[in-house]
Amino acid sequence: MTEERRAACELRLPDAHRFYDNIKANAKGASVIAPNTHKGRTVTICGAGPSLSLIREAKPTGDVWACNSALPTLWDWGVRVTHGVTIDQNLAMLHDAEWGRALPVVYYLSTASHPQVGRHLRDHKRVVKLFHSFLGIPDPEGWTPPSRWKPPTSVQANYEMFLYTTLFKPSIMAGHGLNSVPRAICLAMGMGYDHVTVYGADCAMAPDSPAMPPREQPALYPPWLASLKMYADGRSPNVHGQIAMAEGIIDGRRWHTRPDMVISAVHLLELERGFPFKITLVGDTLPNAMRGKPPEFFDSLPKLSKVGQVDNFGVHAGQVENVGPQEAVA
């Protein structure tokens, strides 16, 4: 992708101050997902991107996981869904566009999800199971690993891992990508699925959208943002407020994406390479457009420099002046 300007973007996790409190609250009576329980099975994992509509003719067999708002979308389309998956940590998951309707599927939540989300689902007699989604959140000030804690050699000696390893029975740790779909793929691999087919992981707005307005006309940015299609149900990115967007051309086609999404696009390709013949990414999506590009292409893309910090994000025509820090919204 080529862009006119680059910037550093801050990714803010909604309710980040509750992160450790959520984990501790969810540990009470938790039912966790055990590893290697689904060998010999297949799963279709669905994101909520515009290309999700392709699944309507696919009639997938095996398990069908719907991430976040893909669940009510698929349900309303009449597509068979068996599970909902999220790593989100805030109460937005209780909106009707997400999981407010508590549809009759099994729910997989990260151990850092807001406790009220799991409580809402259980109140509706839904099965809720938990897995870990590692984020690397800083330790509480002054915390040091207790001498009685002996973490496995492969485990980081930080507070987040301390909670995962001491409060829960052994489960699965997802740690790739910034959004729910790549984390769901990690979960599926940990559960032992033989193959994962992925729909709706666009990591971008619908391609070939109108060009971003020039810097000299900032008033045009909000209506332009509202014109983009971000979700399969037709919603635009302005449901999250005024967010930073990069514009780039790949093989003659125009793409628009957020900082967290472009990093997840790269991570999806990394997962595909890491599990050869086990992952299929379906659709007219940013990861599929990026596949096979030379190393210098990927070297020019944004990178995570630390937790919550994305460097080298391409922002068209000075839109940096028009937007603030970004939330990593799955």
Report mean pLDDT, rounded to a whole number: 89
The 3D shape can be described as globular
The structure class reads alpha/beta
Strand % is 15-25%
Strand order of the largest sheet: 7-6-5-4-3-2-8-11
Give the C-alpha Rg. Answer: 19 Å
Number of DSSP E strands: 14
Provide the succession of SSEs.
Answer: EHEEHEEHEHEHEHEEHEHHEEE
Count of runs of 4 or more consecutive helical residues:
9
Q: Please bin the fraction of helical residues.
A: 10-25%
Low-pLDDT segments: 315-330
What can you see in these coordinates?
The protein is an alpha/beta fold and 330 residues long. It is built from nine helices and 14 strands. It has a domain at 16-199. Helices cover 24% and strands 19% of the residues. An eight-stranded parallel β-sheet has the order 7-6-5-4-3-2-8-11. A four-stranded mixed β-sheet has the order 12-13-1-14, with helices on one face. A two-stranded antiparallel ribbon has the order 9-10. The model is unreliable at 315-330 (pLDDT under 50).
